[in-house]
Amino acid sequence: VDDIIPHCRQAFELFGFDVIIDENLHPGLLEVNSSLMMHMDAPLDEDIKGRLLADTLSLIDPLPFNMQALEEVLQRRVRERPRAAARHDPSLNDDLVHILGGRTPRLHGETPRHMGNYKMIAPSPLYTRVCKMKRG
């Protein structure tokens, strides 16, 4: 995917895993898809993909924001500050509180409040071992 879709900090990727289950009920991985088919052509699709979308949005927990407040802040910042000074602007925090209604984004590495049916695999001891094996 990296050669087609560039990395973006404000984005995420959702992969689809196709599995086959043998007669002993052991799963086997057939393939991993980076472009999921999200069509809901059957009741089973609606059930599975509907829950996937709900869990994904709950996990991401996008912050609602006040569009009017954002426009006001942007207009004021364009008028008042040269671009270079905006990086170290002490009023930035107040502006974000105004735009986001007091909510704050989750910190990098902070566990999401709602995991749904997702399971965190990183960071974990297993993830650390796998990363060490890949480097070694």
Structural class: mainly alpha
Share of residues in strands? 5-15%
Number of helices: 5
What series of H and E elements makes up the topology?
Answer: EEHHHHH
- Side-by-side strand order of the widest sheet: 1-2
What's the mean pLDDT score?
83
Globally, the shape reads elongated
Largest sheet, in brief, is:
2 strands, antiparallel
Low-pLDDT windows of residues: none
Residues in helix, %: 40-55%
Total number of β-strand segments? 2
The end-to-end span amounts to 24 Å
**Rounded radius of gyration (Å):** 21 Å
Describe the model.
This protein is mainly alpha-helical and about 140 residues long. The protein has helices spanning about 45-60, 65-80, 85, 90-100, 125-135, and strands spanning about 15-20, 25-35. The mean pLDDT is about 85.
How does the SSE layout of this entry go?
Layout: E1 16-21, E2 27-33, H1 43-60, H2 67-80, H3 83-86, H4 92-100, H5 125-135
Antiparallel strand pairs: 1-2
Provide a short characterization of the protein structure.
With 136 residues, the chain is mainly alpha-helical. It has five helices and two strands, in the order ββααααα. Strands 1-2 form a two-stranded antiparallel ribbon.
